[in-house]
Structures are given as C-alpha cells and as structure tokens.
Design brief:
This protein is α+β, with helices and mostly antiparallel strands. It has nine helices and six strands. The protein has helices at residues 11-21, 42-48, 51-56, 87-102, 139-155, 181-194, 201-225, 229-240, 248-281; strands at residues 2-6, 29-31, 36-37, 74-80, 108-113, 120-126. A six-stranded antiparallel beta sheet has the order 1-4-6-5-2-3, sandwiched between helices. Strand 5 and strand 6 (120-126) form a beta hairpin. The longest helix has 34 residues, at 248-281. The protein starts with a strand and ends with a helix.
Length: 282
C-alpha cells in the first residue's frame, strides 16, 4: 500500500516529522544520497534541504497583504505491507521505489518502522524539485505508485497486488470494520422511520461499477476478436456476475436486517418448546 499522510507546511513541522519517523532519534534516517542520519544530524539534514527558500519563492508582491500562501514543503508518504512480510524486503523495495521515482528530481529521506504488526517505511519527499518544479500528487499518480511499489515487492520475492478492489470485484475493504456507535444509532433510527437507507455515495459507486463493467467487456471483445471466444465469454460472465454495489451504510443496514430476522426466527422456533414445557409443569 502507498498512502500520502500529509506534509509539513512549516520547517518546524518537517523537523517534528523527522523526529517522529526516527522515534526521537532511536532510528537512523536514510537519505537520497545513501547517508545514515542520526538524531544529531537531523538539523543539518533539514538545513541542507533549504525549505525556507521554497516558501520564499511564493511570497506575494510588496503591495499584497494576504501573506504567503500555505504550501506544503514536503510530502509524507507511507509504504506498507501486511503482517509477516519481511521488513528487509519492504525496506529494499522502498529504496528502489524512492530512487526510481524521486532520485533524479527531489530530495527525500526514509525510515523503516517495525514496531507495529505490518512493516512500513515512512518516506519524506521535498515538494519542490531540483529544477524548481513542485510535486503535485493526484489519484492517477498514486495508483501508479501503488503498482510500482507492488512490482518492487515482487522483485524481492514477495507476492503483492496493486489491482484496485473494484476491478477485482471486491466492494469492501479486507479486515474488520469498526463503526462508531453514533453511526449505528443514525442507521437504526432511519430504518425505523423509513424502512430504507439513503446514501449519497451510492451514485458514485454505481458509476464506478458501470465503468468497471465497461472495461471488462472491452477486454472480452478484444479477446473474442483474437479468436479467444471461450476466454472472452468467461470475462463477460465475470463482469455480469460481480457482487451487488452496496455502500458501507447499506451493508450495515442489511446486516442489521439479517440479525433481526435471525433473532425473530430463533424466538419463534423456541416458543412452541417453551409452551410445551409450561404445559408439562401445569
């Protein structure tokens, strides 16, 4: 997984993040130049990035009283893998990923964390490149990074897949879902009042599903044109039998309906037994 977790807008914030990813100096930070920086060297590393010049280039003209815009000086990125993945492999893949994507254009530093179940690397990338251009991260770039990091993990002998869940036919995240009690209360009240759940996110999910199905059908058409009739048919079957689109709220509502139904059936099945037991006592 590749995730952008923010970025410092002040030099002090960047210094604080360096302290965090190094566990207050207990871990060394590795730079784009291959240097290992200890706690004592973090201030010098930060100074060598000249972040104050980045902010200075965006100061308003003398007559503008709005003040300098609040821009990111760095991007904070996390590269992580599931539990039981080799931390050494994650670090090796992260090094290649960072070098290939930023080595010739942006200063960066990284640190490996293994204190949690899933090993991960914190990567700090200077927003302004060596050529003065700023790094702007969008969804397309993030998808490319996910695919790139997955490839780097495979090169380390670790199975990794960066295919989006929607394309794989999955409509929910893996693992447990922790829903706030307030959300549950809102859903219960809405179900009690209207017997239905309205979720604005449904329209967006339906559009995504439509695009996914169109993509699979396009692949099927290409296969059929190449003479792969059976394989094309399998692809169409897969696209036409994807699981129903449900938002998190709708899924939770269905689970509540199911639990209520099961409890009702259980209660009805035990009532005759209870009545017979009462009759025997009488």
């Amino acid at each position: 997984m590749v995730k952008v977790t923010g970025g410092g807008r002040r030099t002090g914030a960047v210094a604080a993040h360096f302290a965090y990813i190094s566990h207050q100096g207990e871990l060394e930070i590795e730079t784009d130049e291959g240097q290992r920086v200890s706690k004592d060297g973090q201030k010098e590393l930060l100074k060598s990035w000249h972040l104050e010049l980045s902010a200075g280039q965006y100061r308003p003209s003398r007559g503008d009283k709005a003040g300098p815009p609040d821009i990111k000086l760095v991007h904070n990125i996390t590269l992580s893998m599931p539990a039981a993945t080799s931390p050494k492999a994650v670090l090796a893949a992260a090094r290649v990923f960072a070098r290939e994507n930023f080595g010739a254009t942006h200063r960066y530093a990284l640190a490996l964390h293994t204190h949690q179940r899933h090993p991960h690397v914190h990567l700090v990338v200077k927003a302004e490149g060596l050529d003065g251009r700023r790094l702007h991260i969008d969804k397309a770039m993030l998808r490319e990074w996910c695919q790139d990091f997955a490839q780097r993990m495979r090169e380390q002998g670790i199975e990794a897949n960066a295919t989006p869940r929607a394309v794989r036919g999955q409509t929910r995240r893996a693992g447990k879902s922790y829903v706030l009690r307030e959300e549950l209360d809102v859903i219960v009240r809405e179900l009690s009042a209207t017997k239905t759940i309205a979720d604005p996110a449904r329209a967006r999910l339906l559009k995504t599903r439509k695009d996914v199905i169109a993509g699979w059908n396009s692949i099927a058409a290409t296969l059929e044109a190449q003479g792969e009739i059976a394989l094309g048919g399998d692809v169409r079957y897969f696209a036409n039998h994807l699981p129903p689109v449900l938002t998190d709220r709708e899924r939770l509502a269905m689970k509540l309906f199911q639990i209520t139904k099961e409890r009702t059936l259980e209660r009805r099945s035990t009532e005759p037994l209870r009545e017979r037991a009462i009759d025997r006592v009488r």
